[in-house]
Design goal:
This protein is mainly α. It contains 25 helices and four strands. The chain folds into three domains: about 190 residues, Cytochrome c-like domain (Cytochrome Bc1 Complex, Chain D, domain 2, Orthogonal Bundle), CATH 1.10.760; about 140 residues, Cytochrome Bc1 Complex, Chain D, domain 2 (Orthogonal Bundle); about 280 residues, Cytochrome Bc1 Complex, Chain D, domain 2, CATH 1.10.760. Helix 11 crosses helix 14 and helix 23 crosses helix 24. The termini are far apart.
Length: about 650
């Protein structure tokens, strides 16, 4: 019966945007005749645009109720949102759990909320961005409006711990500017500093918190706003059935759904909406979360029980749809979800990189020739994109266990080695043989690949004459065949390091904001439910036993920082970075501080120590500076250090 209902829901999804539900009334803007006409029917991208407008619609310019908000109410509400005096010990504000400063998306990235006295609640703190577009507030929907929600935390004994609304108003009256602020926001009232007016002002401010991302530019008709893989991800999101719950312009927040339709969720203690309604039918029913800014708001689910987005996508497909997604499907959906992040929160000034004089056009797999030569190229593509499954430590044929990690070659060489400034292989063939300072000799491509196997993959060298080596060389050669020897886009973009030591603590905070949603708090990445024990991870491990060892190039801070700024979070391009050079520097420092496999014999690297990069973090060194300086910087003056 459930399967029939869900199938019917999929068929009805296209009608969602033109027939409002009771839960989502006035929240979904149907595509107009004019906007639909802008899309070109009959083309894949045009059809996707029409479909997306029907299922999701345009995000309204203003939230319901904002027509009654005045500038004075909004200004007061913002002050109150950041006011710590409304908590029992004056340490907690709304912003403490729903941070908006420092480009915050209104979520604290903790598993469950932490209160003023250090106690933790039992539910994950939802983001405040776009909250006013939802049918109700809190995971169980116990507050019908933003005003009602605003009254909850101050009086919650775990969160802010105030005795009652009068106590909150009394605190505010004791602060010099608030009586005048309330009088301006609520003119004509004899005593405007009330708990009700506190809630009205906070709600007025929260109604201004509307986020818009590249997804919205696509809905507006800019098909260049999304990459091919991101559009493929939207198709996967639609076709798999995610839209049954995550529809409308907020991609969620307009219905209540059972957590665990086909398979029970691990947490069976929290019965969700049942606590509010006492109806048996509402057991384990929760409000469907909004997916806007989802890449910035880990961990996930009502209990914060899932730490990374790949696992959340995988678990939802299994629990709610009875589907086990492939790595490709999960990766595509992740790419689509990155387009929902607010562009104001995920952009920094462009990096100083000259635009390539010619277009960056990777070759297409469909153009690989037929025959033995083409088969070898295709095998090479498989090996570099699914390295762990083909050559990892758990493959059945022990003779094929050349990689000792859970990584793939494409974990560093993004988009199968075709991403501009994402360490692409395009043009690499023409660059070899070349001098390598680490070995102090001229090397061909095969030794370079084996260096990656020994270090980045923490494994052992492939026989140079093996079919696997020949296949990888053939694939790289096919990618390189039409590339000039020197072209902008190879390697990584130029990175300007700060003139200071990397701050590991700041790096951890930035990691939690930008990276944890994919790689998890433990940095271990994620392996999908559909993968076998030898299957590749859909998200790579950044540290730990399954990651690269300390001799890898990615273990150098400046290399890591440049890679992060030019390519992360997922979907970032060198033209529109999401992470500043300062943040990338500290994140790289934090990653460098974590445990990873140790490679023996590193003292033999760089026979000529003058050739050793200043950020190579292992001895010996050409100078007399401590190892920590080489690991964390600052690096600018190190070349002039006494030898």
């Amino acid at each position: 019966m459930q399967r029939k209902v869900l199938t019917s829901l999929i068929m009805m999804a296209g009608l969602i945007a033109v027939g409002y539900s009771d839960f989502g009334r006035n929240l979904i803007s149907p595509a107009t005749a004019k906007s639909t006409a802008e899309a070109v029917p009959g083309t894949p991208d045009g059809d996707l645009l029409i479909q997306a407008r029907a299922i999701f619609g345009k995000l309204p310019a203003a939230m319901p109720g904002s027509e009654n908000d005045t500038p004075a109410m909004i200004t007061l509400g913002k002050k109150l949102y950041f006011e710590k005096a409304i908590s029992i010990n004056k340490t907690q504000s709304c912003n403490s759990c729903h941070p908006l400063d420092n480009k915050g998306a209104g979520a604290d990235n903790l598993k469950t909320g932490k209160g003023a006295e250090g106690k933790f609640g039992n539910r994950n703190d939802p983001a405040t961005m776009n909250a006013g577009f939802q049918i109700a507030q809190f995971w169980d929907g116990r507050a019908a409006t933003l005003e009602e929600q605003a009254k909850g935390p101050p009086l919650n004994p775990i969160e802010m711990g105030m005795a009652n609304g009068e106590a909150v108003a009394k605190r505010l009256k004791e602060i010099a500017h608030y009586p005048a602020d309330f009088k301006e926001a609520f003119p004509g009232q004899k005593d405007p500093v009330t708990f009700d007016n506190f809630a009205k002002a906070v709600a007025a401010f929260e109604r201004t918190l509307i986020s818009r991302g590249r997804f919205d530019r696509f809905i507006d008709g800019d098909k260049q706003a999304l990459t091919k893989q991101e559009m493929d991800g939207m198709r996967t999101f639609i076709n798999v059935g995610c839209i049954q719950c995550h529809n409308g312009p907020n991609l969620g927040g307009t219905t209540f759904q059972r957590m665990g339709v086909f398979h029970a969720y691990a947490d069976r203690e929290d019965m969700g909406r049942f606590k509010v309604t006492k109806l048996e039918s509402d057991k384990y029913i929760f409000k469907t979360p909004v997916l806007r800014n989802v890449t910035l708001t880990a961990p996930y689910f009502h209990d914060g029980g899932v730490g990374n987005l790949a696992e959340a996508v995988d678990q939802m497909a299994y629990l709610q749809l009875d589907k086990k997604l492939t790595n490709e499907e999960i990766n595509n959906v992740l790419r689509f979800l990155t387009t929902l992040a607010d562009e104001k929160l995920t952009t920094t000034p462009p990096m100083k990189v000259n635009a390539p004089p010619t277009a960056w056009v990777p070759p297409q797999m469909k153009d690989i020739p037929q025959g033995d030569a083409g088969d070898l190229i295709r095998y090479g593509a498989l090996l570099v994109t699914d390295t762990h499954a083909q050559l990892g430590p758990d493959v059945k044929n022990e003779k094929m266990r050349f990689s000792g990690s859970t990584l793939n070659c494409s974990s560093c060489h993004l988009d199968s080695g075709t991403k501009q400034f994402g360490l692409p292989w395009m043009g690499v063939t023409q660059a070899y043989p070349q001098y390598r300072g680490r070995e102090d000799q001229v090397q061909g491509l095969e030794p370079r690949i084996n260096g990656c196997f020994e270090r980045s993959l923490n494994g052992k060298a492939l026989p140079v004459d093996s079919k696997e080596m020949k296949a990888m060389v053939a694939y790289i050669g096919w990618l390189s065949k039409d590339m000039p020897k020197k072209v902008a886009g190879l390697g990584m973009p130029k990175y300007e390091a700060p003139s200071r030591k990397a701050d590991v603590q700041q790096g951890e905070q930035a990691y939690e904001r930008f990276c944890m949603s994919c790689h998890g708090k433990d940095g271990n990445g994620y392996q999908s439910l559909s993968a076998s024990s030898s299957g590749s991870r859909v998200v790579p491990a950044l540290w730990g036993a399954g990651s690269y060892n300390n001799g890898a190039g990615m273990n150098r801070l400046l290399t890591t920082a440049a890679f992060i700024q030019g390519n992360m979070p997922l979907g970032t391009t060198w033209t529109h970075p999401a992470i500043s050079n300062e943040e990338a520097y500290d994140i790289a420092g934090y990653i460098s501080s974590r445990n990873r496999p140790q490679m023996s014999g590193l003292e033999k690297d760089y026979p000529n120590l003058e050739k050793k990069p200043v950020d190579a973090p292992y001895p010996p060194f050409a100078d007399k500076l401590p190892q920590e300086r080489h690991q964390y910087g600052p690096f600018q003056a190190m070349k002039a250090a006494p030898k």
